[in-house]
Amino acid sequence: MNANRLKRSHLKTYLISIISVTAIFSSIGTLMIRGIEEWGYSSMEKELSGLTRGHSYSIGNALEAKRVVDSLLAERIMMTAKAVSEEPEPYTTEYLSGIAKAMGVDSIIVYDEKCNARYSADEAYIGFSPPDGHPAKAFFDSTLISYVGEIREDAVKGGDIKYGYLRLSKGGFIQAGISKAEIGTMMSGLELDRLLNEIKGTGSIRFVSYAGRDFKIISSTDEGSKGKYLEEDERLAVSHGKSLSTPAGTDWDRIYRVIVPVYSRGSNAGSLIIGTEMKETDSLIVMLSNFGILLLGTVYAVLLFMILSSYRKDKRLWKVAYTDDVTGLPNSLYLKEVLEDKLLRMRNTNFAVLMVNLTDLKTINMILGYETGDRMVKEISERLETLAKNGLTLYRFAADRFVFLYEGCRNRHDSRAIAMRIDDLFVKPFRLNESFKYMSVQVGISDTDGAQKSADQLLKEASVSLGSIKDVEDSSLAFFDSYMENELQREEAIEEELSKLLQGEGDGRFYLMFQPMVSMEDDRITGFEALARFESKALGLVMPMEFIRIAERKQIICQLGEVIFREACSFLRELKTIGQDEIKVAVNVSGVQLMRDCFSEGVRDIIERCGADPSMIELEITESILVSDFEEINERLRLLRNQGIRIHLDDFGTGYSSLHRLKELQVDTLKIDRSFISSIDDSGEEDSIVRDIISMAHRIGLVAIAEGVETKSQKDYLKSNGCDIYQGYLMSPPLEKHKAIDLLMQINSGPELTDENQTA
């Protein structure tokens, strides 16, 4: 499924809505015109027959008419509230005023989930909070979805008004109302006394006559009709309780005569004869039809505007939520929704997920820049899209990963064939500026194979199978298998144990080990790196590389990080109590933690609660964090340094840092990766890379720390080249807290160490 198909699918929903609304309003318009025509030719008959039914029947008619009008008023109020509810917040006063005017209501107020008036067509209501006993508060406290009340006095501006309420799904409700004056205007034509006067005084009525039970006209507005008797056909119709309507007069002066039986207490009391001019009725039909069409057109235009506005807004949100900016392909969020839907609806269909990993993309981004990398990704997506047919759909899953969803995959032979075709696409190099670049890929495959799996499970299995590919030259393809499944089960077990631990449950133990950092100048301990450890009865000791990765993936690293940081601050406080208040403690921070908006404030809060000195705290970040968003991360580091916290750039030299931007980076220390230190041996050969890193760090004002120092020759080399601090097994492995304190007291409280007595 490509982006254009996604757009058509998205547009289809709104086109259906527009067509449905248009069809509904067309039907309403047709029925309305027909109703007006029927009313035009029968309204006088109905009205005048009502006059002859007696005062009690007239009152009954008036009450029924009042109920109908009241129902129409309630419907108008609720239509207004529903129209507002379908438009997303925020609302402006002008917008609500426009809706009120278009819908013929006098007041629109939108209350939030705390029963406070947040928006209103009249600014006087904004901020109003109804007290207990107020109808709006009673509706808010009830379980009703909608309600229309009786006419009451308005609590803010006074005056009588009829209000209706509609509850919103997210909390809060909409209140719309029509004033008593407006209601009075609508009801005026239905008041009995006024109705009688209007019938008598309407210009379209030529005459009104009343005949008794003997069919003799005993009263008439036409004096010449008095004393006459009804015709035979008119008598017959009235005797059988039927109405008779006949045109009379000439073509130039047509009169429409209506004769209806009049009942009193269930029996025939006479007949009513009405003569009305046809031309005025026709004019009235035309006028009311035009007015009705105008009113329907206005409501239709408002609804159409709301649908189109919603479409434009949703289109922008949909594009952000479901498509990749660089390639225009549907993204991972859309993939998960589509896959979950297909797995649910097509249970007997086999699916395969082929996850394509671009192994060299990070290097290209670092060397040639992200703009060049994006152009290459765009070209890669175009090549991959050539395969997107016959049940294959392509998605941009992550920065360096694409996913093919293979619907109807018969067996692994089919998916392997697709993987080989993917590999063939990368035989041809990509053109980058003035040079060519080959891109190698890896494909991890997972499939349903007749089993019921979720979208998350399939994607996780494909990712795990990718992670199992260790050597690109050996194989670029891997299927998810039972061994990987065992690894996945272990991962889920670790996640469960970690979650229990964070909830204060389970039998797991989480603690810190501390490895000393030693000054090259005097061999005294200047600080400790806090290293997290986790073990449980079921899993035994789980190494940090394993459980930290799982915590990041399962979105619990932030809670885990808070536990680590609190323990580290507690260790600092303990050091202070024994007089070692100049010893620093370094804590590793993941990119997930650092990118949280509240991370800096959370660190400050923990420091304050623990009573720790911020200047004694050091946070260690890895170079890989900088790949995601250098500017944003650098700003967050600046906020942390402003609190007095020092920042270490850990694992420096592993290939992510851009050297020309290093000077801009908000860090205090470079920690040289242990892989460089291990290359220093006893042969006396110099390692120029380590020397250059130390020199570069000093030139830009940073402290150089070497990690993984295990031999005296390594230390001597580092010291001779100006390295400031080292850590490693030469001094000590990571220690539990009490042993770390004992070592600190032994080293820093005794005579200064020499190289000879240190290695004795």
UniProtKB/TrEMBL annotation:
SUPFAM superfamilies: EAL domain-like, Nucleotide cyclase, Sensory domain-like. PROSITE patterns: EAL, GGDEF. Signal peptide: none annotated. InterPro entries: Cyclic-di-GMP_PDE-like, EAL_dom, EAL_sf, GGDEF_dom, Nucleotide_cyclase, Rev_trsase/Diguanyl_cyclase, Sensor-like_sf. Residues 491-748 form the EAL domain. It comes from the Bacteria. Residues 349-482 form the GGDEF domain. The chain crosses the membrane at residues 12-33, 284-308. Keywords: Membrane, Transmembrane, Transmembrane helix. Pfam families: EAL, GGDEF. NCBIfam families: GGDEF. This is Diguanylate cyclase (GGDEF)-like protein. It comes from Youngiibacter multivorans.
